[in-house]
Design brief:
The complex is a heterodimer of chains A (78) and B (222). With 78 residues, chain A is an all-alpha fold. Helix content of chain A is 81%, strand content 0%. Chain A has one domain. Chain A is built from four helices and no strands. The longest helix of chain A is centred in the middle third of the chain and has 50 residues. Chain B has 222 residues and is mainly α. Classes of the chains: A mainly alpha (78), B mainly alpha (222).
């Protein structure tokens, strides 16, 4: 008989920790993606605002593709 | 019902099922006649390995689908499943090591089952490294798909290794050679880990798609 309970406790603790740590990693990654999306959206708005106030057609704004593809809106829901 | 709500329900079910599986494994299932309580590690070791195999099967199927359809969503799915599979396979190997020390007297030995499992883990770590060092999305998807398909060949080798060769590792347990309460604990563990696998892969898949869309937006912006 091998009744060393320490090995059993170690195994179940390791399993629970792995699940918790990986879930936390995914949550942190999701938060980072949301922040990136918000930053990109605010930069896009700033560029549009600057282009509008100076009456200049900014090529980077015109060719954004951001609004057309709707990605920024979508990634905020991660 | 929206996908977000379904994902939350799946996550909640997994979160409830895992402690239930732990409770049945630790408090309801009887001790093994030969190994005693140490055998209870089986109720997490086997489900972790099963989830790893299932994740790598998803990688294989998604990789084939990508090469046929050239749709990057399949590549994102393969990537997500590979990452989660590495977590579960790594866990299975560590749990096996913890079980091996009191029963075999060693943490590790170059037994066919252990060696083929380590090779499997190395293949998918290589898969993730390949992805990390390849920037162009189409090329990354194509190369990863090739590794995802070829790498899966090791899964049946791992599973059958205990039948093909004389190994220290025991042969698979089934309904014919395991007591009913033990089988219940094992099945509950398998269900809990499968739910967790599905939840993690879906969350990681959504993240992978969001990251890809952000990259596209940032490139367009620049």
């Amino acid at each position: 008989m091998y009744d060393d309970g320490g090995f059993v406790i170690a195994a179940y603790t390791l399993t629970a920790l792995t699940v918790v740590v990986y879930a936390a990693r995914l949550a942190l990654k999701a938060r980072a993606v949301r922040h990136r999306a918000e930053r990109l959206r605010s930069e896009t708005k700033d560029s549009e605002h600057r282009a509008g106030s100076h009456g200049v057609h900014d090529r980077s704004v015109g060719d954004l593709g951001v609004q057309d593809h709707g990605p920024v809106e979508e990634v905020t829901h991660v | 019902m929206s996908r977000s709500i379904l994902l939350r329900i799946l996550g909640a079910t997994a979160v409830i099922t895992l402690p239930a599986a732990f409770w049945v494994a630790l408090a309801v299932a009887p001790s093994d006649a030969l190994m005693g309580d140490v055998q209870r590690i089986m109720y997490v070791h086997v489900p972790a390995a099963w989830s790893g195999f299932l994740a790598f099967l998803i990688v294989f199927l998604a990789s084939v689908a990508y090469l046929v359809r050239r749709d990057l969503r399949f590549d994102h799915l393969a990537h997500s499943a590979a990452e989660v599979g590495v977590v579960f396979m790594g866990l299975a190997i560590l749990l096996g090591s913890i079980w091996g020390k009191p029963t075999w007297g060693v943490w590790w030995t170059w037994d066919p089952r252990l060696t083929s499992s380590a090779v499997l883990l190395a293949i998918y770590l290589g898969y993730l490294a390949l992805r990390a060092y390849t920037e162009e999305p189409e090329r990354r998807a194509r190369w990863s798909a090739a590794v995802g398909i070829i790498g899966f060949l090791d899964v049946p080798i791992v599973y059958l290794s205990v039948l093909w060769w004389r190994t220290l590792h025991q042969a698979p347990s089934g309904p014919e050679n395991i007591a009913r309460p033990m089988l219940l604990a094992l099945w509950l563990g398998v269900v809990a880990f499968t739910l967790l696998l599905a939840f993690f892969v879906l969350v990681r898949y959504r993240l992978a798609r969001a990251e890809a869309e952000l990259e596209f937006s940032e490139v367009s912006y620049v």
